[in-house]
Every structure is written in structure tokens, then in C-alpha cells.
Amino acid sequence: MPRTDGRILALDLGTSSARALVLSADASPVPGALARHKVAMAYGAQGEATLGLHDYVEGLLGCLDELQQNGHLEDIGHIVLSSQWHSIVGLSAGGEPLTPVIPWVDTRSVPVSVGPDFDERAFHARTGAWLHRLYWTRRIPWLRTVANASAFAGLPDLVLERLTSHRVSSVSIASGTGTLELASGQYDDEALAVAGVTAAQLPEIVPTGWTGVLSSAFERRWPALAGVPIHPPTGDGAASNVGTGAYDESTAAVTVGTSAAVRVVHPIEGAPDLPWELWRYRVDDKRAVTGMAFSAAGNLHAWLTAVLQLDAAHQEPTGVEIGSSRVIAVPFQAGTRPPETVPSGSGAYFGLSFDDTGADLLAASLLGASLEIDRGLRMLDTVFGHSLQVVLGGGGIDASGWWRRCLTATFARPTDVCAEAEVGARGAAAIALGLSPAPGGEHLEPPPADVERVAAMRPRYEALRGLAVQASAL
């Protein structure tokens, strides 16, 4: 039976902010019960992109202090966490951090050395990952070299350790490291060998039903939370899917935040074969999530509106019909995710003329991002053997009606919009407590004229996309 006693405290460990918010028993946000700590990423010329671990954790703890000061920590029955996937911190043998948090944005790693018998396609089918810098198989050898690290953990593992004194990981978070055997939910022997570590050097993987409680020092700091069960963290992609209402193989969730993704949640038992182009991670002990991620989404919109100096009234291309612009935008400003290898700085615009406006450029960019997401959706249709229903969610979806309509036309199928912007926190609560949230937002039908215009320009987009991929290799 779903456990819905008491309110829910959700901790959301994002890349641009750490947040704490209170949800009702049905995982709806309590008005006003939100505290946020903005996070500043430190960038460097050699591909560095890091987060300060101490400042991040202290900022999150400060969010709990703020909620307590405003009387929002009473009647909390559960504490849940949603977290960015793929982060890593190098630790000493005694567990002290030797590095800042290395998130997915950081491009540093080292090539791995594998023998002639290594079969990366079999490895990908087993782990859902590739030998790519996103994953610990390449991060760990690099951190052993540059920081002399001898143990490793992700940001959510260390946050959980700070709160409970237990350094453990969930099957969901561990799957994002690229070192998990998906079927068993344990570390993969070959992945460990490639990384050059043993399972003892990584956080212990605990089952979905595991719970901890606050350490005595934090119980004194937040007395209302004493003894409240703390559930293992969920990877933000899995949490976002479930939070939108896409929690089975009938429905794909398209989430648009800083980046974007299209994913399907399904049972891990009897999972369909995994195509080379898609990744697969775990949601919990019984479910997996298969999908494709994209590096350009809300960050693309924010960059272009800043470059074009568009004021608030012009940050949507409302005067441009979907698919009508002559301009083609290939949104590779932040490169591509694996298995493609297009580097950042590869964005391209084709067909510019002197009569194009900022609205034309913005419309072309949002359509280009929509077409990229549609590539993943079509692959997922094939994997699951039917045309998937689609739910749209996330901050980018919530902020742009034009983009919602553009995605619907590009997919050439109806979509439902998740009415709740806090899909990650909502999903983490739903996974931990056995809830089944519904999207609850508007239903969109694609206008035939929009669908026809997008379909007519799609071949040109694909051809120019191919040129952009070739140019990125020069």
C-alpha cells in the first residue's frame, strides 16, 4: 500500500541549485515551503567545471534552517532526495574529500586501456553506459592520477553520509556511474576492472527500501525531523519521469530544464534490447529507465535571449509560425551526449539573411532542439514496439507555451503537459512512497498545418545536421 502519512521533505540536488521543499502527502508542493541555495559552477580553460562540496552541502543545510525558521518542518513523515546523475568526488582512504564535485559538465578524463577481448557493445548492453568521460570508468583513473584518490563517491552519496553518517548509494544513483550491472543491481566486475578499483572503494549499494535517520547533531538542529526516515536518493532523470506521470512503458516523458531528455520507465525484468544510441539506468529495485539526453535546452534558450538582448516580452517567438522559418539551427552549442562525439562549440545556423529577426533565430533554435528530442522519441517508439504517449514536463516546458506547441507538432502526436514544475522532487517522493502522480495539465493536439511544415523541413535539417557533425571533426 502507498505510504502517505505526514508531509514529505524533498531535497533536490541540482547542478545550478540545491533546494529543500515540503510536499503534501500526495507529493504536491506546499505553497511557500521552498528554500533554494544557488550554486556557482567554477569553469576553467582545460574543460574544468566543478562545484565546491563544502559550500554546496552547507547551502543545502541552510535551506533546512530556513524552512524550520518559517515553521515548515512540522509533521514531516518522510525525507526523499532527487539528485543529478554522474557526479564524482575523489576521497582519501579515510573518506576525506580530495577534490571538488566533478559533475557531468566537466570534460576532463583520461582514455581507458582495455584489452583486445573487450566488447563495448556487450558492456553497453549490460551497464547501459559507454566508456565515456561522463562515467566513472574514465573519471576514476583520471582522479587517481591527479588527486591520488583511493575511494570515490558521488554528491548524493556524500550528502546522505553527512545527514545520516552512512556513505551508501542507491541502485538508481549507482547506475548513473556507468559501473552498475543493470540486471543484478550490483557493481559490474568488468567496469570495476576498467576503472581499476574494487567495490570496497565505492559506496555500498542499498536496496530501495533502505532508510536512515538524521545523526544526533542534526536531530538537535532540527528537532521536528528526529527519527524521520530518510530514503535513498533517486537519479534526477528517473525522478523527473515518474514526477510527470510517465511511470510505465506506455508513456515517454520529455523533460526540458537546463538540458533535455526523453525517457521511458519500464520493468527491469524482461527489458527490451538496448540500442547502441540509447542509455539505460535504474529507477529502483524493480524498474529501469531508457532514454536519450541532449545538452542544449533551457541553457540554449537562456544563452540566445541574452546574446540577442531580448526583453521579457520577446523571449518567445510568438509571431513565427512553427516550422516556417527559413533558418535552420543545429543546437550543438554544448556538443552532444554519447555515443556521438560532437564537442561543445559546434552549434550552427544555416540560411541566415538580412531580414531575419531575433524571433526567427529563437524559433529556429527551439525547433532544432525539438527535432533532436524527436530523434530519441522515434528510437524509443521502435524499442517498445508502439507509438508512445508523451508527457511534457520541467521548467523549460512550464516557461514557454510556444515550445510546448513546437514539440507537439514535431512529435506529430498529442501531448499532455505536467502541471507541476517540481517534477524531480515529486518523482523522488512517488518512487520512495509508491505513489502514482498524474500529469494534471493541459492536453495539446498538434495542428495539421504545423505538423506539415515541420515534416517538410525535416529532411533539410537532417542534411545540415550531418554537415555540422562533419565540420565538428575538422
Automatic annotation (TrEMBL):
Residues covered by the Carbohydrate kinase FGGY N-terminal domain: 8-243
Keywords: Kinase, Transferase
Bilayer-crossing regions: none
Keyword Transferase attached: yes
InterPro entries in UniProt: ATPase_NBD, Carb_kinase_FGGY, FGGY_C, FGGY_Carb_Kinase, FGGY_N
Coiled coil: none
Alphabetized Pfam families for the sequence: FGGY_C, FGGY_N
Origin superkingdom: Bacteria
Residue ranges constituting the Carbohydrate kinase FGGY C-terminal domain according to the UniProt record: 252-432
Membership in a protein family: Belongs to the FGGY kinase family.
Protein name, per record: Gluconokinase
Native source organism of the sequence: Kribbella alba
